[in-house]
Design goal:
By secondary structure, this protein is α/β, with parallel strands linked by helices. It is built from ten helices and six strands, in the order ααβαβααβαβααβαβα. It starts with 5 loop residues before the first helix and ends with a helix.
């Protein structure tokens, strides 16, 4: 995305930009316990986001899988701690709401939203602060179409609003996004947007690790994100799961940049 001129495009929008890379250590043995490694990485992300938010700057995190969200939004929470809460619009094909006890695969990228809501292994839930980073009444998921019963049970018991893909297709993405904005802004100081590119149909975003058919259309999401552009209470944006090795002629990378520019 940087090679394609993302920073230049942002500068043309009037932003002063800086770029920092935080690399997850290479793990050769996939059978070892990766939880402490990912937790340490998320702690580093949290520290970086904390510093940026504390300085009153807008941030964007461009991540691999969605586990980085634990660090992103824990850092944002710590920066706002004592000032006010923030809401969350979570655009994803999946619920990302397993814990270590409910996960079928043990994959941490299936746990970030649960962790941010205060559920799961303390190694993840206590990053940035011991308490939950998000309140369920201020969280909305958009585009969900692949999940396990345990995740749905947790989110439904908490009262989290879920816009399943069927509702999005029936009502239109913009209408659902407007309602999600209302939820994220209700009695909050700010809100964030976290986008997993697998929310988008593989025909528009082929370069993702967990593609799911029957997804959002890229152009529709670009249009919907115009609702947040220039809003004073947008805390930051996160775009995850771009895998260049799986992309087709940089189609997904270009779309990811378009999404970012549409939102800010």
């Amino acid at each position: 995305m940087r090679a394609q001129g993302l920073l230049k495009d942002l500068q043309e929008e009037g932003y002063e930009t800086s770029w920092r890379s935080l690399d997850l250590p290479y793990v050769a043995d996939r059978e070892i316990n990766t939880l402490p490694i990912v937790a340490s990485y998320c702690q580093e992300i949290a520290e970086t986001v904390y510093e940026v938010v504390r300085e009153g700057k807008l941030f964007t995190v461009l991540g691999g899988d969605h586990s980085c969200a634990i660090g992103t939004w824990s850092g944002a929470y710590r920066a706002l701690r004592g000032k006010g809460r923030f809401g969350m619009i979570w655009v994803d094909a999946h619920m990302d709401s397993h814990t270590t006890t409910t996960s079928h695969s043990g994959a941490i990228h299936g746990m970030p939203l649960a962790a941010l809501l205060g559920h799961g292994d303390p190694t993840l839930t206590r990053i940035g602060a011991a308490e939950p980073k998000l309140l369920p009444q201020n969280v909305a998921l958009i585009g969900v179409r692949s999940y396990e019963p345990e995740e749905a049970e947790l989110l439904e018991s908490l009262g989290v609003r879920i816009f399943y893909i069927e509702e999005v297709q029936r009502r239109g993405l913009t209408a659902c996004f407007e309602e999600a904005l209302t939820i994220a802004r209700r009695n909050t100081l700010a809100y964030g947007v976290s986008i997993d590119l697998d929310a988008i149909d593989p025909s528009d975003a082929p370069g993702v690790g967990s593609p799911e058919p029957n997804g959002l259309r890229g152009e529709e999401l670009i249009d919907a994100l115009s609702l947040v552009k220039d809003s004073d209470d947008l805390l930051g944006l996160e775009i995850v799961e771009l895998n260049p090795n799986l992309d087709q002629r940089d189609k997904t990378a270009k779309l990811a940049s378009q999404l970012l520019l549409a939102a800010i």
